[in-house]
Amino acid sequence: GYRSRASFKLLEINQRDRLLQPGATVVDLGAAPGGWSQVASTIVGPRGRVLAVDLLEMALLPGVEFILGDFGDAAVLEQMLGLLPDGADLVMSDMAPNLSGVRDVDQPAALHLAELALDFAGRVLKPRGALLVKCFEGAGSQALRVEFARHFEQVLVRKPDASRDRSREHYLIGRGMLPITP
Ligand code: SAM
């Protein structure tokens, strides 16, 4: 069985958009308790790799390399970059802040995590790679889409059935990294 209901969101998105491929190198940001990593490691298989990170400890999964730490921490970022000398085919982030319930606090925190994922993707994605990021509709979410459009040939918005009870939650997909001219 899967460790989290989140697995079904990734399965549904992947069924439509085919982000996960056998042999692929996948980065799972905010991976605990491991539902997405389970799905990813099954699909990438023994020739692929899954590199996962979370603030919280996660029970071992076969075929998944796990780093315990804050993805916003420069040392954690450097460690991950060091483990990806050939880059990644897919960066996926289901990271979410600890919700305080105060939208003016939670929304910027969530956007910041999405931006960290976008910056990281710019550093590790292969040219045909893809980025999948959890987002919340609200202040700044339109600007984030515009930012995605600056970085990717194609930007898609997905709201899997398993997210329907979480009204503001959705996922952005970027495919085909564009060279950025500052
Ligand atoms: N996709 C996961 C699954 O399928 O099991 C569920 C992820 S859960 C919705 C969000 C996770 O993001 C939490 O485990 C949380 O600890 C993690 N997270 C939030 N901020 C983080 C950060 N700065 N660095 C690493 N992980 C973070």
From TrEMBL:
<dbReference type="InterPro" id="IPR002877">
    <property type="entry name" value="RNA_MeTrfase_FtsJ_dom"/>
</dbReference>
<keyword id="KW-0963">Cytoplasm</keyword>
<feature type="binding site">
    <location>
        <position position="94"/>
    </location>
    <ligand>
        <name>S-adenosyl-L-methionine</name>
    </ligand>
</feature>
<keyword id="KW-0808">Transferase</keyword>
<feature type="binding site">
    <location>
        <position position="70"/>
    </location>
    <ligand>
        <name>S-adenosyl-L-methionine</name>
    </ligand>
</feature>
<feature type="binding site">
    <location>
        <position position="54"/>
    </location>
    <ligand>
        <name>S-adenosyl-L-methionine</name>
    </ligand>
</feature>
<feature type="binding site">
    <location>
        <position position="34"/>
    </location>
    <ligand>
        <name>S-adenosyl-L-methionine</name>
    </ligand>
</feature>
<comment type="function">
    <text>Specifically methylates the uridine in position 2552 of 23S rRNA at the 2'-O position of the ribose in the fully assembled 50S ribosomal subunit.</text>
</comment>
<keyword id="KW-0489">Methyltransferase</keyword>
<protein>
    <recommendedName>
        <fullName>Ribosomal RNA large subunit methyltransferase E</fullName>
        <ecNumber>2.1.1.166</ecNumber>
    </recommendedName>
</protein>
<dbReference type="Pfam" id="PF01728">
    <property type="entry name" value="FtsJ"/>
</dbReference>
<dbReference type="InterPro" id="IPR015507">
    <property type="entry name" value="rRNA-MeTfrase_E"/>
</dbReference>
<dbReference type="InterPro" id="IPR029063">
    <property type="entry name" value="SAM-dependent_MTases_sf"/>
</dbReference>
<comment type="similarity">
    <text>Belongs to the class I-like SAM-binding methyltransferase superfamily. RNA methyltransferase RlmE family.</text>
</comment>
<feature type="active site" description="Proton acceptor">
    <location>
        <position position="134"/>
    </location>
</feature>
<dbReference type="InterPro" id="IPR050082">
    <property type="entry name" value="RNA_methyltr_RlmE"/>
</dbReference>
<feature type="binding site">
    <location>
        <position position="36"/>
    </location>
    <ligand>
        <name>S-adenosyl-L-methionine</name>
    </ligand>
</feature>
<keyword id="KW-0949">S-adenosyl-L-methionine</keyword>
<dbReference type="GO" id="GO:0008650">
    <property type="term" value="F:rRNA (uridine-2'-O-)-methyltransferase activity"/>
</dbReference>
<dbReference type="GO" id="GO:0005737">
    <property type="term" value="C:cytoplasm"/>
</dbReference>
<keyword id="KW-0698">rRNA processing</keyword>
<feature type="domain" description="Ribosomal RNA methyltransferase FtsJ">
    <location>
        <begin position="2"/>
        <end position="176"/>
    </location>
</feature>
